């Protein structure tokens, strides 16, 4: 799925990758082989390890942008693993790398539209983890997020659109 697109009358409809002719050729990418045609399996091929999801989390809700910030996130990710996951996420079109304006030697990472479309998945993982496991997440805040999923997702998307790096959940 490529995401919602405005259709006739301003109504939104979902656009799926399989419906876009020549998608891989248009983006200059070779089509990757999948184990199966199952959307869950294909998604796990792209995101199936904790490190990739934690990088996406840090971009989305902690406001991280640089290799150094990811490295110092407190998760204990080895630098070679971090570099590999950043490369894979970029190759999958989930993040993009941009040279920092003040110092072109430094790279800042940003979620792409494909990456920000993972916001509902991460929100549900956060809620599920807080509901079923012992976490450091404030219960009152999680309860508010549960009641206002749409508002939380709208704020995540607003911050992404406006390139607002203010952490959404600084305690994470």
Keywords:
172 residues; mainly alpha; Arc Repressor Mutant, subunit A; 2 domains; two-stranded antiparallel ribbon; two-stranded antiparallel sheet; 9 helices; 48% helix
Task: Spell out the helices and strands N to C.
Answer: EEHHHHHEEHHHH
Q: What characterizes the major β-sheet?
A: 2 strands, antiparallel
Annotated CATH architecture of the largest domain? Orthogonal Bundle
Question: What is the average per-residue confidence, as pLDDT, rounded to a whole number?
Answer: 83
Q: Could you give the topology of this structure?
A:
Blueprint: E1 3-6, E2 12-15, H1 23-26, H2 39-47, H3 50-61, H4 67-71, H5 79-91, E3 95-99, E4 107-111, H6 113-116, H7 119-132, H8 139-147, H9 149-161
Antiparallel strand pairs: 1-2, 3-4
Helix pairs in contact: 7-8
Description:
- With 172 residues, the chain is mainly alpha-helical.
- The chain has two domains: 34-111, Arc Repressor Mutant, subunit A (Orthogonal Bundle), CATH 1.10.10.10; 118-163, no CATH class.
- The protein contains nine helices and four strands.
- It has helices at residues 23-26, 39-47, 50-61, 67-71, 79-91, 113-116, 119-132, 139-147, 149-161, and strands at 3-6, 12-15, 95-99, 107-111.
- The protein has a two-stranded antiparallel ribbon with strand order 1-2. Strands 3-4 form a two-stranded antiparallel ribbon.
- Strand 1 and strand 2 form a beta hairpin.
- Helix 7 (119-132) crosses helix 8.
- The protein is globular and about 40 Å long.
- The model is unreliable at 6-10 and 20-30 (pLDDT under 50).
């Amino acid at each position: 799925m490529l995401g919602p697109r405005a259709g006739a009358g301003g109504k939104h409809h979902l656009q799926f990758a399989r419906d876009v002719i020549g998608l891989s050729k248009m983006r200059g990418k070779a089509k990757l082989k999948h184990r199966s045609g199952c959307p869950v399996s294909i998604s796990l091929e792209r995101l199936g390890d904790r490190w990739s999801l934690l990088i996406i989390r840090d971009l989305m809700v902690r406001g991280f942008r640089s290799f150094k910030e990811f490295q110092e996130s407190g998760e204990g990710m080895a630098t070679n693993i971090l570099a590999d996951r950043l490369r894979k996420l970029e190759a999958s079109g989930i993040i993009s790398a941009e040279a920092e304006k003040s110092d072109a030697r430094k790279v800042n990472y940003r979620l792409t539209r494909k990456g920000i479309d993972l916001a509902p998945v991460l929100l549900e993982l956060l809620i599920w983890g807080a509901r079923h496991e012992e976490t450091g997440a404030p219960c009152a805040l999680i309860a508010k997020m549960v009641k206002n999923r749409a508002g939380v997702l709208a704020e995540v998307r607003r911050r992404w659109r406006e390139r607002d790096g203010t952490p959404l959940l600084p305690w994470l």
